[in-house]
Design a protein that fits this description.
Blueprint (H helix, E strand, L loop, with lengths): L1 H8 L5 E5 L5 H13 L5 E6 L6 H11 L5 E5 L2 H8 L23 E4 L6 H7 L6 E4 L18 H7 L3 E8 L3 E2 L12 E2 L2 E7 L15 H7 L11 E2 L4
Parallel strand pairs: 1-2, 1-4, 2-3, 4-5
Antiparallel strand pairs: 5-9, 6-9, 6-10, 7-8
Helix pairs in contact: 1-2, 4-5, 5-6
Length: about 240
């Protein structure tokens, strides 16, 4: 819903950058947001090893069925490819140079969901200020790798360094698994939690740079994340 709202009011294509393509579920949601509300098709840049036999086939099918959406994939370890291709500088982006070139992609929405232990940090450090960060949903926000469960957890590090602000977290409705999945087995109940935040720009590679005059900066500032879905909001761990 947030991506759809931003895409529907922005005066150019919304750029989503995701680590961890998986089986394309998040990509499908981003593309759906594009077709449901926006005047400009959402652009999606996916970073993944793409080493599973179905992944590139799925990506190519999405690309075939959504010809209006600009899509790029970057195969390899996202610990390396994100820092190679993203840029915190919007002025470097033009309609002609945002592609597989080095450090030319300024993102608007970040979705960290790969097995790289620094993917969320890498996304934030190599992206403009005032944009959205969200990450893979976890069974707990006190996990030791992604959110806040240890001194090594990425979101905890980002918060301590003042790289992100306006953190708000949510829980999903409980679901009962009807078949086996990688992270949950048939018959088990499963509830996921996830968070949103905005980037401050204070941890950008190359030094702090923040253009608050851009339309995307104003749109995200006006989202008022703390007012979203209060019924499903949960406490942000210390």
């Amino acid at each position: 819903a947030i991506v759809s709202r931003l895409a529907g009011t922005l005066d150019r294509p919304l750029r989503v950058c995701e680590t961890g393509f998986g089986a394309g579920h998040s990509l499908a949601l981003f593309l759906q947001a594009s077709t449901s509300a926006s005047s400009y098709p959402v652009e999606v840049y996916s970073f993944d090893k793409f080493d599973r036999p179905y992944q590139l086939a799925l990506w190519k099918e999405f690309n075939k069925t959504h010809p209006k959406n600009k899509m790029e994939y970057f195969a390899g370890d996202s610990c390396a490819t994100v820092t190679r291709h993203l840029s915190p500088n919007r002025t470097k982006a033009t309609n002609t140079n945002i592609n597989a070139n080095i450090n030319t992609i300024p993102c608007d929405v970040l979705h960290g969901s790969s097995l790289c232990g620094t993917d969320n940090i890498d996304l934030v450090e190599n992206s403009p200020c005032g944009i959205l960060l969200t990450s893979t949903a976890m069974a707990s926000l006190t996990d030791g790798k992604v959110y806040f469960g240890s001194n090594h957890a990425q979101w905890k590090k980002l918060r301590e360094r003042n790289c992100i602000t306006d953190i708000v977290c949510f829980t999903e409705d409980e679901s009962k698994m009807e078949r086996d999945f990688i992270f949950a087995k048939q018959g088990n109940t499963f509830t996921s939690k996830f968070c949103f935040a905005t980037t401050t720009g204070k941890c950008q590679v190359g030094g702090f740079q923040c253009d608050r005059s851009t339309r995307i900066f104003r749109l995200i500032s006006n989202l008022k994340l703390q007012n979203l879905c209060p019924k499903y909001q949960v406490h942000v761990p210390a």
